[in-house]
Amino acid sequence: MRLERNFFERNTLTVAKELLGKVLVRKVGKKEIRARIVETEAYIGEEDKACHARFGKTKRNAVMYGRAGCAYIYLCYGIYELLNIVTEGKGFPAAVLVRGVVFLPRRSQIGPGKLTKYLKITRALNQEDLTKSEKLWVEDDGFKVKRSQIKSAPRIGIPYAGTWAKKKWRFNIEK
DNA sequence: TATTTGATTCTT
DNA sequence: AGAATCAAATAT
After folding, report:
1. Domains of chain A (ranges plus CATH)?
2. At residue A11, does pLDDT exceed 80?
3. How far is the CA of A66 from the C1' of C8 (A)?
């Protein structure tokens, strides 16, 4: 079943952890592409020096200030579109970056830049409401992730964030 | 208006 | 270690 608004309207770290094992569904035409989320990363608030909201509300990050459950997609390094899911209440900028997925029933894992390419996710889907969209949403297919399988680690690719880069806000499922 | 800089990935 | 490649942020 599809995850509803109340799933996303919670503490960002909680959502990041519980998103592990869930299924990302991208519908293009009549085809559905499914991929299991195996790695996520949290970006929380204007205080977080790694978060795009660190300079306040801008045209790009405005969606993070909006409703939980919406997609925040942006272009990184001019090449890769990265997918985030907005969390917490309206007015508070926070989101969970989908860092890694495995396609079903395939096994190989791919990173944040490639998964959007494979799922045909572009900025055209920015601000898409995942609780209502016909094109992109997240499902719970009953797959259980044991607590002991969830690992936390420092965030990646944000050396400029100083001490904030060291926060263990990256979560993944142990193989 | 011009320059710098990335929530990445692949090549050398 | 560096390139690819562009939009947003910052400097001018």
Report:
1. 5-134+142-173 (3.10.300.10)
2. yes
3. 19
Give yes or no for a contact between A139 and A25, defined as CB atoms under 8 angstroms apart.
yes
Q: d(Cα A135, Cα A121) in Å, to the nearest integer?
A: 10
pLDDT digits 0-9 by tens, A62-118? 999 999 999 999 999 999 999 999 999 899 999 999 999 998 766 678 999 999 999
Nearest nucleotide relative to A60: CA against C1':
C8
Rounded CA-CA distance A149/A106 in Å is 20
What percent of chain A has pLDDT above 90? 93
Interface residues for strand C (CB within 7 Å) are A 52, 55, 58-61, 74-75, 77-79
